[in-house]
Design goal:
Layout lengths: L5 E4 L6 E4 L9 H5 L16 H10 L14 H31 L12 H17 L4 H32 L6 H9 L2 H20 L5 H19 L8 H7 L13 H11 L8 H19 L3
Antiparallel strand pairs: 1-2
């Protein structure tokens, strides 16, 4: 997934801003967004697309952080988007697993939480919608119609496919005939379309955030909320360091941060990309929670 960033001019003000071409070299974007996290035992997680979401958010954040801090609710938006992706994860994992079966002959896995993914995702998108409505700016104008469309399409999907989702969730053994019938009724095509809409909504909001600081807050909140939602992990994705530091080239946290927050970020970054024993894992999650809350509470 190298070379996932493109940059060109956008907007109607004629200025240069990053345009985040997310995983453009992926043959199928939904596969990339729902890639499974391999835990310390070499077993694929049923729900958590953490590793690829770290790559995703790094693609959203190659920026220069030389501006001063200013008040912003962007961290709240990043956190809400992370929750929405997490709620949708069982649907995305099911789509990927069945697609892998069709293309590569691998075993199909039915993720946990599939039967409740519709109401869970609907609730989380509603909270995201409410948060966006409380804000002002170009990102609101860009994001609201996308989010409204996504919520409407999700409601229609749930009404059509809830029976299929419950049936699949209750399977004791994989039944390929049941999966094929669900596919013939449009289940997997509709999941793919919804996943694409969720990604488009995120793009629309993030690309219109007004400055680098707000983008950093969004990205860090998104990334750490994703990690905290996933629970303890045996290894932190290496791209998390670049997110915390603001770019792949940076060797320290952004200069506008207070010393205490910077030190927490440096300590967390030192645990990234290496195997974690129990003590290091516990410390990593403690630091992730500290940094997350400090970013969320920035003035």
């Amino acid at each position: 997934m190298a070379n996932i960033l493109l940059s060109h001019s956008v907007g109607n003000r004629g200025r240069k801003r990053p345009v985040y071409a997310l995983l453009r070299n992926c043959q199928n974007l939904s596969f990339c967004l729902t890639a499974l996290l391999v835990d310390g035992r070499g077993v694929e997680s049923e729900r958590r697309p953490y590793a690829v979401r770290m790559k995703l958010i790094l693609g959203l954040l190659v920026i220069s952080l030389s501006v001063a801090a200013c008040a912003s609710p962007s961290a709240e938006l990043g956190s809400r988007f992370a929750d929405a992706f997490d709620g949708f994860a069982p649907l995305g994992v099911l789509h990927r697993s069945y697609s892998d079966y069709l293309f590569y002959g691998t075993d199909v896995a039915i993720p946990g939480g599939l039967d409740t993914s519709c109401p869970t995702t609907g609730t989380l998108l509603g909270l995201l919608h409410i948060e966006l409505l409380t804000q002002t700016g170009a990102h609101v104008v860009a994001g609201l119609p996308r989010l409204a469309r996504l919520r409407a399409d999700l409601a229609e999907f749930c009404a059509r496919q809830s029976e299929n989702l419950v049936t699949l969730a209750q399977l004791q053994l994989i039944d390929l005939d049941v999966l094929k019938r669900a596919g013939d009724e449009g289940l997997f095509a509709e999941i793919y379309a919804l996943q694409d809409e969720l990604q488009i909504a995120l793009d629309a909001v993030l690309e219109e955030l007004p400055d680098a600081v707000r983008m950093w807050e969004f990205a860090v909140a998104f990334s750490l909320r994703t990690l905290l939602n996933a629970g303890e992990t045996s290894r932190l994705e290496p791209s998390l360091r670049s997110i915390l530091y603001g770019s792949e080239e940076a060797s320290e946290p952004p200069a506008f941060l207070p010393e205490e927050l910077s030190q927490s970020i440096i300590e967390l970054a030192a645990l990234i990309g290496v195997p974690l024993d129990d003590a290091a894992r516990s410390r990593a999650m403690e630091l992730a929670e500290t940094v997350y809350h400090d970013v969320m509470e920035r003035p």
